Structures are given as C-alpha cells and as structure tokens.
Amino acid sequence: MGQITNARIVQTVSAREGRAFLVEQGELIKVIDVRGQQAVDFFAFCRHDPREYLSAEHTRVGNLRLFPRVGQAFYTNRRRPILTFVEDHSPGKHDMLVAACDPTRYASLGFKGWHASCQENLMSGMSALGVEVIEVPSPVNLFANFPLEPDRSLRVLAALTKPGDYVVFKAELPVYVCVSACPQDLNETNAGNPTEAGIEIGSR
Ligand SMILES: [Zn+2]
Q1: Which value, to the nearest 10 degrees, does the dihedral of the CA atoms of residues 79, 83, 89, 91 take?
Q2: From the CA of 202, how far away is ligand 1's center (Å)?
Q3: How many angstroms separate the alpha carbon of residue 182 from the centre of ligand 1?
Q4: Distance between Cα 109 and ligand 1 center (Å)
Q5: Is residue 26 part of a domain?
Q6: What's the CA gap between 154 and 147, in Å, rounded?
Q7: How many domains is the chain built from?
Q8: How many Å lie between the centroid of ligand 1 and the Cα of residue 19?
C-alpha cells in the first residue's frame, strides 16, 4: 500500500509555495510531508463548477466527526462526496477548524511587509490553471496539530509528522486540488521551519 505505481504527476511543492493540479475521477492523490513537522493546506474544487468545493463544515456533519476517518468521505458544499480518505500514514493529527493563513493573519501576528500565505498560494495556484477562485474555502490542514482541549479551547502545536509521512485520497469527482506548503513561521504550526510538500497523482 501507499505506492501510486502509475503516477501521472510527481512533484515537490517548494517550502512556502502552493500548486494546483487537475485530477480525474477515480485517481489517487498522495500528499507527503517530505521533511516532517510541516502542515499542508489542501483544497479541492469540482471541475464542472468550481463554486462547488470541498467544504469542511459539510464534511464534519456528513461524518459527525471533526475530521474523517480512513474510509470516510469529504463532502462538498452541495453535500456530495468529493474525496475518500484512503490511507493515513501519519500520526493522524489533521485539522479542519482553522482558516488558511492570509496576509491579515500575518499582520495580526506583528509581521511587517509581505509574507507568503496559504490563501495567496491557493489563488495563484488555481489562477495558473485558469480558475479565478472567488471564495477561499476553509482548508483541510493536513498534518496540522491543533488539538481541541476539553474546555473547547484550541491550541496551535507543532506537527508531529516524521519525514515521509503521507495521506492518500481518492477523487470521487473530476477535481482541481491545491496543496500549499504552509509558510507559517510565526507560531508553532511548522515547528518554526516551513519546508516542502510532495504530491503524487495517478493510480495503483
Ligand atoms: Zn498556511
């Protein structure tokens, strides 16, 4: 398991950058934390109408969980399965509660000037495929370690992933996916050191 033997796309997404890809229905998508302790913001949009996209809030109620288990689906804002969670070779900590980082977030953390962000990575990645995203969905924050405490507070802790940890999804519809190697370096998200992400798309 884990190997996408007929990989059509094998790419590294550089640290702090993002890329979007076309995926056919039935194809597998493997997202790899190459060096460990790196959160990867992941988005998926329907190709027939990008106004339909992977929705964190519809996925939570669709599974009655904060994050799907392996075997469960991610749902769109029109409540259709868009991806299936096929494999998880990581500590299993992922987040679907926290917005993508954006210029305002970095400004609020005291950063002066331009800082790369997952929101800009999404916009530029989709724009490169000719899709101008109007709305930024709440992301699937792969490998992010943002635990929900018993008093319902959230914490931002460093990812627990080791080099080479990965997840695999199956596309249930023709989709665009976007991965952003989160550039957050002002808190613990990426243990202070943003690094690259790997992606493979294809079939077994
Ligand atoms: Zn980010």
Answers
A1: -20
A2: 26
A3: 4
A4: 13
A5: yes
A6: 6
A7: 1
A8: 13
Helix (H) or strand (E) holding 5: none
State in Å: Cα 204 to ligand 1 middle: 30
119/3: higher pLDDT? 119
Which residue segment(s) compose the domain that 68 sits in?
A: 6-203
- The type of residue at 105 is R
Tens of pLDDT along 24-61?
999 999 999 999 999 999 999 999 999 999 999 999 99
**Would residue 36 count as lying in a domain?**
yes
**CA of residue 92 to ligand 1 center, whole Å:** 19
DSSP H/E element including 107: helix 103-108
Residue 147 lies in a domain: yes
pLDDT in tens, 123-132: 999 999 999 9
| Distance set, CA 69 to CA 20, 29, 75, 84, 99 (Å) | 25, 16, 13, 10, 21
Read off the pLDDT of residues 126-171 as tens digits, 9 standing for 90 and up.
999 999 977 899 999 999 999 999 999 999 999 999 999 999 999 9
Give a yes or no: residue 1 inside a domain.
no
